């Protein structure tokens, strides 16, 4: 167990309960629910019912590739999503999957997927004259094996890679990605040069040939910047980016990170300013403003701990974190109540994507519309031409 600091602050329960999940459904009767403040009126109300799974049939939006058929994007295994400004952003692939570095976006109000940037396909690397012969071979090797190299496309953009939960929406900066370097894409610039900005190198000296999944990227509104958490290998646990200096500073050092190499997932609790973090196969709460770390209850299903890979979002309507993962051949959902330090099972109405795997953080809540978008796929691997399913829901106030 990691050594941690305990502080009863900001409404966070400081208990060290390891009891796992209870049997509550749809948030009813959960401890602390009655303490939630009255929510603000919704800025956008979908036409479909609340608290219900809805499979969308997206319209065919604008694409650079006119041969694309249907309204869904191309499936990108090992790639997660993030949301902001009324859209959900989908980037990544590599390693036996999507070969291009284009950005797909789902416009929630218009119910359509659009392609925001032109695809630069790594399989054309032999024609990329800005690279040496060895660099071309490095890209081929990395995409065949799954690891990464810090090389760019002909337009000076990141080459497609696994994106996991290593992206975040940063207000004022756009869609940001931490893959060897911190990149931010401004959707308002479309596909023009300069739409992608290279802000800094990553802060950790990971050997990414074997450790491509063990960090994440998240936005901290209290610090108004992006933060990354290390899953293992360093006594420095988390770093925040300083946009004024273009450098990273350490914000969490508590605890040894050990050797459990797993994906990192987190959700920010705006009521307390703490992050609910899964790293090194363990759930903890972290405060990137004070550097403190707290133990928390571990999510269990049938007595066994539930680990990565999964999807997580903060649900402000519930005042809880929402987690989705397939277990025993079925998509399951849980909520975590930080006030009660307890997990509960959670269900929506409707016939949802029952067999979706929910890996790599493919659930995102758009703060502008309050709509949750989930990209569902039963088979985690890709076949040419396959697409995911776009599912949505919104929660009543």
Quick recap of the structure?
This protein has one helix at 133-145; strands spanning 21-22, 54-55, 59-60, 81-84, 87-90, 104-107, 112-115, 167-170, 174-179, 181-185, 196-201, 218-220, 225-229, 238-242, 247-252, 265-269, 274-279, 282-286, 293-295, 300-301, 304-305, 311-315, 320-327, 330-337, 342-346, 363-365, 372-376, 389-393. It has one domain (21-393): Kelch-type beta propeller (Neuraminidase, 6 Propeller).
CATH architecture term:
6 Propeller
CATH class: Mainly Beta
* CATH fold title: Neuraminidase
Helix content: under 10%
Shape by Cα distribution = globular
Largest β-sheet summary: 5 strands, mixed
Strand order of the largest sheet: 1-25-24-23-22
Count of individual domains: 1
Q: State the oligomer.
A: single chain
What structural class results from the helix and strand content?
mainly beta
- SS element count, helices: 1
CATH superfamily: Kelch-type beta propeller
Question: Can you write the helix and strand succession as a string?
Answer: EEEEEEEHEEEEEEEEEEEEEEEEEEEEE
Q: Could you tell me how far the N terminus lies from the C terminus, measured between alpha carbons in angstroms? A: 38 Å
The chain-level mean pLDDT equals 87
Portion of residues in beta strands equals 25-35%
What is the C-alpha radius of gyration, as a whole number of Å? 20 Å
Number of strands: 28
